[in-house]
Design a protein that fits this description.
The structure is a single chain. Helices cover 18% and strands 18% of the residues. The protein is built from 6 helices and 9 strands; from the N terminus they run H-E-H-E-H-H-E-E-E-H-E-H-E-E-E. Helix 2 (43-47) links the parallel strand 1 (24-26) and strand 2. The termini are far apart. The radius of gyration is 17 Å and the shape is globular. By secondary structure, the protein is of the alpha/beta class. It has a 6-stranded mixed β-sheet with strand order 4-5-6-7-9-8. Strands 1-2-3 form a 3-stranded parallel β-sheet, covered by helices on one side.
Length: 236
C-alpha cells in the first residue's frame, strides 16, 4: 500500500508473531496501484515480509481485488501475487477449503477469491466460488470463511459460521460509524467490526494499509486478534 514500506511490514509481521496465534490469516490486497510520486512494489517484494509469519496451524491468504486489478501481468490466468505467496511459504486459498485439526476436533477453513476482481463495487468482475470451496468440505465440521470483501456475506450467510474479511479499511473515514467512502454495497455498520447476518458471524478488520488517498481519519490501522472460545457454538 502507499507509504507502507517493507520495513513497516516486517515490523507488523513481528507483532503478529509475538501474539502467538494458532492461525494467521491475510485477507488480500498485497499490492497497490501505480501512482505518481510513490513506489508500487512488485508482487515478490510486497509479499516477502510476510514470509516471516509463523503459526502452529498455518498461515493462509486469499487474493484481493488489487491483486487482480493491479497485477503487472494483468490478464494472465494467475496473478503474480499468487506465485509470490507460494514462494514466501503462505498457503493461498483460491475457492478451496482445508480441514484444520485443532485439539480433539477439527474445523473447515475456506477461502474465496475476490468478489470484486478487476471490477468495481457496483460492477464486480467476480472470481469467487463458495460452492466450489465448500463442495469437498466434510459435513458436521464448523465452517470458517476468509473472503477479501465483506460483500461476500451476500453469498455466505447461512453457509458458514464465521466470515472474516478486510477490503474496506474501515472506510478510511469513520465519523461515529458513518463510513461513506467504504468500497462496499453493505450498510456502513457492516463494513467494519462484528455483525451477524443470516446466522453467520462476520468480522471485518480495518487492515493496515490504505487505498486511494493515503490517509485515515478516525479509522486507525489494526491487527485483528480473534479468540474463539472452545465451547462456542459454531453450528448453523
Amino acid at each position: 500500500a502507499p507509504f507502507t514500506p517493507a520495513s513497516h511490514l516486517c515490523a507488523i509481521a513481528a507483532q503478529v508473531n509475538a501474539l502467538g496465534p494458532d492461525l494467521i490469516l491475510h485477507a488480500g490486497d498485497f499490492i497497490a496501484p501505480r501512482r505518481p510520486f510513490w513506489h508500487a512494489a512488485p508482487p515478490a517484494e510486497a509479499v516477502r515480509p510476510f514470509a516471516a509469519l509463523s503459526a502452529r496451524l498455518g498461515v493462509f491468504a486469499v487474493l484481493g481485488n488489487h491483486d487482480w486489478r493491479d497485477d503487472p501481468a494483468r490478464g494472465a490466468p494467475v496473478p503474480q501475487v499468487a506465485t509470490a505467496l507460494s514462494e514466501a511459504g503462505l498457503t493461498l486459498l483460491q475457492n478451496e477449503a482445508r480441514v484444520i485439526r485443532h485439539g480433539q476436533g477439527a474445523f473447515v477453513l475456506a477461502g474465496t477469491d475476490s468478489f470484486q476482481g478487476e471490477g468495481s463495487p457496483r460492477r464486480p468482475m467476480r472470481r469467487d466460488d463458495l460452492y466450489r470451496a465448500l463442495s469437498a468440505a466434510p459435513a458436521g465440521r464448523p465452517r470458517l470463511l476468509l473472503a477479501h470483501e465483506p460483500d461476500m456475506i451476500a453469498v455466505s450467510a447461512g453457509q458458514v459460521a464465521l466470515q472474516m474479511s478486510g477490503h474496506t479499511h474501515r472506510g478510511q473515514l469513520d465519523l461515529f460509524g458513518w463510513r461513506p467512502l467504504a468500497p462496499s454495497r453493505l450498510p456502513s455498520r457492516q463494513v467494519y467490526g462484528h455483525s451477524r447476518i443470516g446466522g453467520t458471524h462476520m468480522i471485518v478488520t480495518s487492515g493496515i494499509g490504505t487505498s486511494g488517498l493515503p490517509l485515515r481519519i478516525c479509522a486507525p490501522p489494526e491487527i485483528t486478534l480473534i479468540t474463539i472460545h472452545p465451547q462456542a457454538d459454531l453450528s448453523l
